[in-house]
Specification:
255 residues; alpha/beta; TIM Barrel; 14% strand; binds zinc ion
């Protein structure tokens, strides 16, 4: 099993990162993908990757909530890292209009520029999209249909939105996190619309811990809770969910 989106390099895990890794391995989570946030998080990300090189894979990018009016300089600082380090994706990148709409235009420009990097480097992208699907699709439509590969991480949209993405942008994967286990979330139709062949499992730790750990710090060892709930919805076994989502993640990120 793979946790396709986790931030275990953050300071929330400084005191017990080794335990976190061991609990994940004990629960069958053998790999994880660590997307960057901004310039401040790069050293911690690289240190964690260097400590667990056979378990953790890094993605590099500038998160939309970290985009400032100086985003060109921010991107100029990040881009050279792709020449000196190995990354499995450009991420996490995208549009977030939930917290703040002030830099909507800058977010769009930074997102488009980082999609160009992904195309130059032949890497997939990890999309963070919150309250911004229309804007995210507008940016992606600047590129030829189905020419960008990637995942909409932490996706909790509607089946209709899945169809819209497929129709306007291309064949994307969708990351499903702990929200799928929440009693009031009702993601059954969404999971069915996506289908197991395009689902990736993720925790988004330290955020959004699944039931029965809701409200506490999340960690990669909880990924099987998502697998079990998806299995229940699709009426297949947890082992099948594990096998297929692991293959999906390996295919997309080439790990
Ligand atoms: Zn994230």
């Amino acid at each position: 099993m793979i946790d396709s989106h986790t931030h275990i390099y953050m300071s929330e895990f400084d005191a017990d990162r080794n335990d976190i890794i061991n609990r994940a391995l004990h629960n069958g989570v053998h790999n994880m993908i660590l997307p960057n946030v901004d310039e401040e998080s790069i050293d911690a990300l690289h240190n964690t990757i260097a400590t667990y090189p056979h378990i953790c894979h890094a993605a590099m990018g500038l998160h939309p909530t970290s985009v400032t009016p100086q985003f060109q300089q921010q991107l100029e600082n990040i881009r050279p890292l792709f020449d000196t380090h190995t990354y499995c994706a450009v991420g996490e990148i995208g549009i977030d209009l939930y917290w703040d709409k002030t830099y909507r235009n800058e977010q769009c420009l930074a997102f488009a520029e980082q999609i160009r990097w992904a195309q130059q480097l032949n890497l997939p992208i990890i999309i963070h999209c919150r309250e911004a699907l229309d804007t995210t699709i507008e940016v992606l439509q600047q590129f030829p249909y189905d020419s960008v590969r990637g995942v909409f991480h932490s996706f909790t949209g509607t089946p209709q939105q899945v169809h819209t993405i497929r129709r306007l942008v291309g064949d994307f994967y969708f990351g499903i996190n702990g929200i799928v286990t929440f009693k009031n979330a009702h993601l059954e139709e969404l999971i069915e619309a996506i289908g197991i062949d395009r689902i990736l499992l993720e925790t988004d730790a330290p955020y959004l811990a699944p039931t029965p750990h809701r409200g506490k710090r999340n960690e990669p060892a909880y990924t099987p809770f998502m697998a079990a709930r998806i299995a229940q919805i699709l009426n297949i076994t947890t082992q099948q969910v594990d096998k297929i989502t692991t293959a999906n993640t390996r295919t997309l990120f080439n790990i």
